[in-house]
Amino acid sequence: MTTSYVDLSINTSGHTGTALDPFSWFDMKEAIENFSVDTFYIKGERTVDAWPDFIGDTSVLFSFYAWDPLVNGPFRINVTKSGFLDCLMGTWEQCFLNFSSNIFIGGLFYGRQKSAHLYTVNLYVNDEILLNSSENTFKGCTVRTPDKISAITTDTLFQDTLIDTLDWYVYYGQPTIVMVNSSVNTLKLDITEAGFSVIDSNCQYLWVPPVWPAWFANKEEWSYRLLGTEITTPPNPGVVPYTDYETGLFGEPRLGIGALYFDPITPIEVSYTNSLSLNIITPQVKISGMMTCIGWVKGPVVANGDVLIPLAVSDPEGNVLNTDSSLKFEIKRIGSDYILQYSGSKSKPIDKNLKIKIDDNNWHMLSFEADEDGNMSYSVDGVSLQPEDGLDTYGLPYSVAKSLTSRVGGGKVWAPYIYKTEQIVYLYNWRFGKDFNLGLKWINELMAIDKEFLKIP
Questions:
Q1: Exposed, middle or buried by CB within 10 Å (0-12, 13-18, 19+), for 283?
Q2: Which of 28, 201, 322, 405 minimizes the number of CB atoms within 10 Å of its CB?
């Protein structure tokens, strides 16, 4: 048996199945039915009537993987025929003879009634999910149905999975459903036969799911910040037994429940900036020069006591952290509130003073400004936020930005600069410049323009 590559967007047949000449849907269907290929790497999306039948040698096991998901994302298949694949592939009798050992990794399926033995796959259905074959396994999945999940003589494992269903229904037999670190919308069991059991471990029940995206939606709509709302029971991906599915649908590391993770958590080097000179006023402490930094944030995720850095300028050697020669415009979480920080200066708590919650999953505009004497001005959503009272260890007020070096910046700009994998933030239109202040009037003018683009009322 061999391995082949598949591009679902190709509409012709007769391709060789190599990375340079990938199979089309029609070529893959023929290869499955002829048992000439057992492993497929797939990219693209396609709407089809039905999945190819598994007919013939029931000892053959098939594997379907996303082809370079970091680049291509998950493969996506929309099946329009009722009885979708009639269990993912073919008729009930044919597919269930060998179905329980086939593997699907990195795909998104949308259709009608289906059953599965799946790893990191999103099932997105408009009818019932029917678990018919033995040993169904859902690892790191997002399983959604507006109807019910039905079990027929099955041992099913939902491991680290989002489950959104109106009902659970057991036909007959003595099935067992095991749930580990899963978030479940409901667990209403309609049991017609004795012996049904549910074994759960560290699960979160009565989770309220958000509005689900379409099967063809952009990856941003499959973000954890959108679909993982209100999840408070985290899993441990990569730790036994949570292995073999540490990446999400788009190839990024999974940090929590479900196979839906996409967030811009990787620092992106965006441009180069000139050095920002500082005015030396004492042998030890230097006051910042005039500068302005503004931009929008949404959905910041940062641990209590840690800082999130929407924009940073490295020092001349390229360092950002553990150096006094870099520029870091920071959001620091303190309990349930946040402050803004820059070069030793810090603001008063935002929610306590402005009644604005910047982690409410809405867009918020932040500004950091220093005058020629290093005196800081902060604002959130165009409203002035006062610097914190008191003096630092150098005897300077927290309202003054200062450094221990005579030269800072001069390196590369990062937006955001993420140094811990659990940190998440969405950014829009971050800008930095020296030798000028915008002031609140112009900040509010820019806010009005940006709001048009962001569609903020």
A1: exposed
A2: 322
**CA 80/CA 215 separation, integer angstroms:** 13
> Over 80: is that where the pLDDT of 134 sits?
no
User: For residues 333 and 353, what is the distance between their CA atoms, to the nearest angstrom?
Assistant: 15
Mean pLDDT of the chain: 78
Annotate 376-393 with DSSP letters as a single string. EEEEETTEEEPBPPSB-T
Going along the chain from its start, the domains and CATH numbers come out as 44-227 (no CATH), 269-454 (2.60.120)
For 317-393, list the strands marked E by DSSP.
327-334, 337-342, 345-346, 364-370, 376-380, 383-385
96 vs 424, more confident? 424
Of residues 227, 222, 188, 191, the one with CA closest to residue 205: 188
Can you tell me whether residue 453 is helix, strand or coil? helix
Residue 86, phi then psi, degrees to nearest 5:
45, 40
Question: By the 8 A CB rule, do 190 and 170 touch?
Answer: yes
Distance CA 334, CA 349 (A): 8
**pLDDT tens-digit series, residues 215-274:** 888 877 787 767 877 887 665 555 555 566 777 788 776 766 777 776 543 433 344 444
Predicted local distance difference test score (pLDDT) of residue 250: 81
For residue 243, the model assigns a pLDDT of 63
Residues 91-106: tens digit of each pLDDT: 222 222 233 446 677 7
Q: How confident is the model at residue 385, as a pLDDT?
A: 97
Using alpha carbons only, give the angle 130, 135, 137 rounded to the nearest 5 degrees.
Answer: 75
Distance of CA 84 to CAs 78, 80, 311, 331, Å?
A: 9, 7, 47, 48
pLDDT tens digit sequence for 299-328: 898 999 999 999 988 877 778 888 888 889
φ, ψ of residue 71 in degrees (nearest 5): -95, -45
**Whether the Cβ atoms of residue 276 and residue 291 lie closer than 8 Å to each other:** yes
Q: Which helix (H) or strand (E) segment is 297 a member of?
A: strand 291-301
C-alpha dist (Å) from residue 166 to 184, 208, 299 = 10, 11, 29
Find all residues with CB under 8 Å of 360, minimum gap 6, and list them: none
